[in-house]
Design goal:
two-stranded antiparallel ribbon, 4 helices, 10 strands, 25% helix, elongated
């Protein structure tokens, strides 16, 4: 065999290996350069969403009613909220526009579950519940208000959000059954709300269904026996007579 041909055949595997090594080195270098000079990745920060402890029921079945003839033409709403873990229930009834100057009444009946062992005091209860109104000048009254549900703790306050209004909040707590009734009555202007107006409004709060809680039924049955009919204690008057200060000064008794 010719010496030149023999040398070429012997050198071919070594040259192939060297060439393959060079290609591999170039490939690795290109990958490294691409990694070094690539644009920085955008890391999206996920903001945790605060989930409320209370879940609103989509189609609430009312357990209470607030029938006020003087407010027959104003908006009315009924909401039920359940505690996510403790099985507590809040029934919230409202009449009127919460941000308007016309009278607005909200009543909440809270039946606690295992989420709490102690109900809050009247002032923080009203301040927290009426947060959307921006309560200011919050002044608890030393004198309770007599109502068919017994003595109510009264908390007067002004609003700092929306229309300027004066409000009269109320809280009534029961130990057996464990229940808290609270809410407020607001109206525009600088006049204070007459306490008898609030008592008359709550005179219309009635029970539709006690469900599996007979003590709730007994509580409202006793309240009906204490009903004042807006100051006209006459059991023959089936509907509570109209009150002059409820939803318009022109309402007749």
């Amino acid at each position: 065999m010719h010496p030149a041909l023999h040398s070429w055949r012997n050198e071919l595997p070594a040259a192939f290996v060297r060439g393959l090594a060079v290609l591999c080195g170039l490939a690795a270098l290109s990958v490294f350069c691409a990694w070094v000079f690539q644009s920085p990745k955008t890391i999206s920060v996920i903001t945790p969403v605060h989930q409320s402890e209370w879940i609103e029921i989509d189609r609430p079945f009312p357990a209470f009613a607030l029938s006020i003839p003087e407010a027959a033409d104003v908006p009315a709403s009924y909401a039920i909220r359940r505690h996510a873990n403790g099985s507590g229930r809040r029934d919230i009834l409202a009449l009127g526009e919460p941000a308007g100057v016309a009278p607005y009444l909200q009543v909440e009946i809270y039946r606690p579950g295992s989420e709490t062992r102690r109900l809050a005091d009247p002032k923080p209860t009203i301040v927290e519940a009426a947060d959307a109104l921006g309560p200011v000048e919050v002044n608890p009254s030393d004198e309770p208000l007599a109502s068919k549900f017994g003595p109510l703790t009264i908390v007067a306050f002004d609003t700092s959000k929306g229309a300027a209004r004066r409000c009269l909040g109320f809280v009534r707590t029961y130990d057996d059954p464990l229940l808290q009734m609270s809410g407020w009555f607001c109206q525009g202007g600088s006049d204070f709300i007459d306490r008898s107006t609030l008592a008359c409004a709550l005179d219309r709060l009635t029970l539709l269904s006690a469900g599996s809680e007979p003590k709730i039924g007994a509580l409202f049955a006793q309240a009906e026996l204490n009903r004042s009919y807006c100051g006209q204690r006459n059991i023959l008057l089936a509907p509570t007579p109209k009150h002059r200060a409820l939803w318009g000064k022109n309402a007749q008794r």
